[in-house]
Structures
1.
Amino acid sequence: MAHWSRELMKSAANITSISDLQAIIDVMPLPVFIKNTDHRIVLLNEAACEFFGHSREVMLGFSDFDLFPEEEVEVFHAADNRVFESGVLSENEEQVTDAKGRPRTVITRKRRVELDDAAYLVATITDVTAYREAEAHSHYLAFHDTLTGLPNRALLNERIDQALLRSGRTGERCALLYIDLDRFKEVNDTYGHQAGDALIQAFAERLTTIVRASDTVSRLGGDEFAVLLIDRGEDADVDLVCHRILEAGAEPFDIEGGRVFLSASVGVADAIDDLNSTEFQRRADVALYQAKREGRACYRRFTSVLDERIRHDRQIESDLRESLATESGLEVHYQPLFHTAGEKLAGMEALVRWRHPEFGLLQPEEFISIAEETGLIVPLGEWVLKQACTMMARWPDLVLAVNFSPVQMREDSLVDRILGILKQTGFEPSNLELELTESAVLDTDQIVREQLRRLRAEGIKIVLDDFGTGYSSLTHLQKLDVDKVKIDKSFVHDIVTNGESEAIVHAVTYLARVLGIPVTAEGVETKIQHDLLGIIGCSEMQGYFYSHPLSAEDTQRFLDDKSKWTRIA
């Protein structure tokens, strides 16, 4: 189309009469019209008639006032007059109203010609409305989330850059909030992705009602959102927004198939210290990570102390990954378990330790939670199990207790991998006890339930670890398929001085005895604790009163000396 327009402009310079011009424009596919210096149409082709919506006979003699709104005419006349005065080819993109009253985007090309000693203006119209609309739509998609219509990360980045520039220039305070919906995956798994999309849209609408129009609510992807708050003078103002976001996340969502209850976690970063965009967003992400670590359904602000803790955790993750890859630094220690009756050795519990090159010998509580969060608990757990089974296979009369994480229990191939390790090391399944927390044993996930069933069917014992941390545990005990219960050491520690702890141990032990389930007391440190637990009826005990955890070398020496298998209290 542009080619036709350019050819016409070239031809117009050689035309000597109106009749010559009419013959040329009649074959043009683009709308073409000729105006005189009074801005009235003297010639036009069929394409122009179709564009303006009138016949040739009607349009001849029309001025721009007959075709366009007055505010458009003023712009057109000014442009036409410049062409009449200069004689230079003019090309402009303009907004015009077509015959149906619709706004159109057009490119007009105009040239002055001298015909019969009079000046005329030859104009062509190229309609680029569809192209500009497609271009605008592509631009919109590049900067907006298709599901919610919210700004996406690209547009958020632009607005963060602008906010930080203003903050540096004027001191205007701004804050960035990272938001994550807790347990959103369960919605997709239970109700389907369509329901999940509906929930995301509903939460997006709630967020937009919480903040001002000058703020930016963005969807980063999945169930992750961000809110950029600008010109916020007080911390309390940001705190109020955070509280409202938590309330919006906790309010039930009505979706097809049911009512869903979720929560939101929020991380907050304040624009201070001449931040750049990358660091600003990293701080919000660090704060969100901490909010999720602290139980979710809360908000946390970025601090330098928090940042140092996160950096430490990430170093632990990286170094643990390296240790697993090279099988260096990790150790398995063993702590004896004794039968209360006769004080005879019942077995050994495998306890992982990590000899870190910088931080020294680390206890499980210093790295296990990080391993669980990052998924490293799976290879770590398998490594511990293999080492312990290899070690203890030499003593077939003893039980081996190994801690297992809820994360491990959700692995589809868990049972097959455990059985493979037992076969490889020659360890009897009936001598293996897997210690699981109450949350793992109570997990309603079908995969977990099936894993537990298969493990017990193979003769592997399931031990409920750290039991008694809540009164509700007593109601659960009679519903669980477990082979042993271990009372949490916190109750053992206080059993002599705290009547409530003693009552809990009494209740758990009595109910377990009625159900025919053995009870182990862990964390036994003194003779008075030992004697009281024996009177209450605990069938096994474990703790410093008997022995500290032993290295693999000390364990071998301990087990090789059969005289140590019986302890005289």
2.
Amino acid sequence: MDPNLDRFDSRRSTVRADRGMVATSQPLAAQAGLSTLRDGGNAFDAAVATAAALNVVEPTSTGLGGDVFALYRTADGDVGAMRSCGGAPEDATIDAVRNALEEADPEIRSSYYPASRGYATDEGESDEGIKMPFLGPHTVTVPGSARGWEATVSELGRLTLPDVLEPAIHYATEGYPVSEVIASHWAGADRLFTDDHARAAYLFDDEAPDVGQRVRLPELGDSLATIAREGADAVYEGEIADEIVSEIRGKGGFMRHDDLASFEPEFVDPVSTTYNGSEIYELPPNNQGLIALEALNIAEEIGAGEHDYDSPERVHAFAEATKLAFVDGHRYITDPAYEQIPPLGSKSYAHERAGEIGPSPIQDPAVGVPGSNAEDSDTVLLTVADEEGNLVSYINSRFAGFGSGLVAGDTGIALQNRGASFSLDPDHPNSLEPGKRPFHTLIPAIGEFPEQGWAAFGVMGGYMQPQGHVQVVSNLVDYGMTPQEALDAPRWRYREDGTLGIEERLPGATKLARKGHDVRVLPPVMFGGAQFVGWPDGLAGATEPRKDGSAVGY
């Protein structure tokens, strides 16, 4: 990646408008959402239009072959959530996957275990034997995006699915120029894609596109047009389903038609807590939203936000609160249909845990889920608000970049590798089981801030997401920052290996090291992008240039 993309000094101000606002990671997609609002859609219609457009103009981070989630507040005051993520195929047992990996051609098997992910050998061997791969057919779980989009529009929107897919279909069939950040992410695809279908769909003369190159994705455009014409059932029961099953099973995976056809999105109750007078809503398990809530509760308990903003004591307090929340979350959070999960988001639970925080770092190695592959994964998030008072935070992802490395036949749909978060150890909290949904990093957020009103927000990037939520909330609540200032402020993040990553703009690195933290200065791209819309009496929007963000209103 070009190092110049990781250096910025934001001079943006908070964007303000009074009829509609869209914030996301790619300008063309933001315009798709805004045009949907102008054409009579509400915030939910615009959210799907933006997400679908991102599938085309930022295909390096999201796609139809992934999952989608929402947190929202309607104009009527209802607070809700949608979870649209599939599970493992019914035939995908630990023994079946392990046997398939052991019998696979060694060269093919080695391609499932990129060295950049820290596997012991190119074939994923360890002292415990074969690990869950990061790429390949065994990492593909049932994709939730298409039925999630359809449910969003039918249950909460006022336009039709063909209406909201039109901008994405236009970009895919007519083409668009590739921006710098997207081109930099696309650059490694020629090494990722070893499969002919993937190379045909996403490479051009066998190479990733250059900055400014106009690209068309006609196969993806045809699939989007099919969904617009036939509905999301085309992905789960129709011709696209046939291509998905054929692709995965042809590569040795276990997906069947019944796995796809039986999938349905869910509208679920969010989980929430209060933080210094504001109420923050997150997604319940199998997502990691409880980690953000527990961290906020512990931080409130120890008065983390009472420290001076530029002091190392502030970073230490919040980072230690977050560390404990990670330890608990990664010990317990999984698909709730398979395990009972303690009340990690409660004040009483945080009160017990807060007593462990002192002036020195807690030495607990269990910060992350070993083998979950979720530390630095990236995604896209978008936030939308309309003049009626509807407000939504919407997140759509294939997990890592182009996902599993597989594209379903000639559909142009790159299939997610979310199943890489499973473990082949039956004693692991996220052990692979048929139908089980993996631990999910994706967490959109909304909040009610008494001094300002309601807001939808989120921070992208694997385990950065709950840490980013904590920092954005604290910046707004404890330090009185504007939305744009709250997103621009330099961040820290606890790493799975126990180190404390900080941006070089963050003061106090030496003092944090003296406290006992193993401090690493990392480029801004490691701290996720972020989006924000909200506040009454005129809408406010914010985004920040750690990615390629755009906040637009009218």
3.
Amino acid sequence: MTERNDHPWWESGTVYQIYPRSFQDSDGDGVGDLAGIERRLDHVAALGVDAIWLSPIFPSPMADFGYDVADYCGIEPLFGDLAAFDRLLAAIHARGLKLLLDFVPNHSSDQHPWFVDSRSGRDSPKRDWYIWRDPAPDGGPPNNWISDFGGSAWEYDAATGQYYLHAFLKQQPDLNWRNHALKTAMLDAMRFWFDRGVDGFRIDVLWHIVKAEGFPDNPANPYWRPGITERDRLIQQHSTDQPEAHAIAAEMRALANGYGAGGQGRVLIGEIFLPNDRHARWYGTPERPQVHLPFNFQLIENAWDAATLRTMIAAYEASLPAHGWPNWVIGSHDAPRIAARIGEAQARVAAMLLLTLRGTPTLYQGDELGIGTVDIPPDRVRDPQELRQPGIGIGRDRSRTPMPWDTSPFAGFSTVEPWLPLNPDWPTRNVAAQKADPGSMLMLYRHLLALRRARPALAVGDFRLLDAADGVLAYERRHGGEVLRVALNLTERATTFDWVGDVLASTLDGAPQPGMLYANEGLIFKP
């Protein structure tokens, strides 16, 4: 895997997210693990991606399935050990792929030794490694902040008579990044994995990591209504996106830049949910850069129609600083499956969009198969977010179901009942079946990713939106003397589109018709 036209790998490449619990079980406990991932690496390599991002694999009580970390420099025994990790890393690198880990800096587990020490008394040396505050005058929480999982963001500790802050579950106390010793310890944890050979990090809820001094109340959200997550009753004005967090991101970047040739060998991807103007600040400046890629979730968040997407894409591109590189994602372990949201026919169009826009795409496991709706029976729900606020559609289990590999029992994922149900159509929607079908979603993804590798215009070229009929999103990619165009019909009806040229890829079987687009048709062509 080489850099293309002097672009670093993270600009020209594609990232593939693996949710380790659900990729491949190697030891018959119904839960995926590191050895299972190693066993299935050939599938990932054959896709044509450039890097793997693993959701958290650190020791954890699993209150939030790994996002409650009990040791930042170890491996959860459910997944394996450091030796298994080293074998996996070597196998990934042997296939020319990169490995990114999921770093969780906003909070640890309440079972992390740091928090156990911090909670032991007000005079603990690590008391200030977390955020403790006295009760309000009425004895209640220090302010009105709401946890992202519902309820107060403060938990009272009777033994010490103070509250600690938790932006998520009470089992996930927030770390105090204003404490120099804590910051040093967390940067040392990043250094531990860089020294071990990882190629970067996806940084969880990066915009959360510093809170406003004084901890003022957050303002009410005038647009909130019942049926929306309780978190959104307030605008997180004082609990997220504080100016001091940018300095920390710059320190993380300086650390990453100390590794790899020319400072380009280690990449930082920051999870950031913010409006464009504030989102763009997380790139930093050329003199003091922050994360390489602040994650852009707008393809997930916006309505699926051509007019909306055109406006969104133009605004996002316009918001980027000159040194900022765009990125795109249509699925993740937190978001509804793209095929469940817009249907399989349009999910094929979404694949073409994701892999032909300017910027780094991230692909989520199973989306290359078109996995759609998976209903989770009430007695199988595992997600604490759904358990705490049921019935409003925020459950994440539906996107974390096991990967179906073949028609053997339990889809080849395990030899026993998996920890979550399989997609109901797994006997026909699995990797083996789609490898044998030239028209399958899997083979479409392989073809599109091969085109990205072969065509610099798609990987790193300039981008220009084109005029098109209602319901059609069209744009041009250009690099050197190469010009390619993409036309996507986001509707269920045929429409006119003035095109002619050599077709490199289509979302449909059969011959495209110049001058029109069939329903659900996407084309890449050379005019």
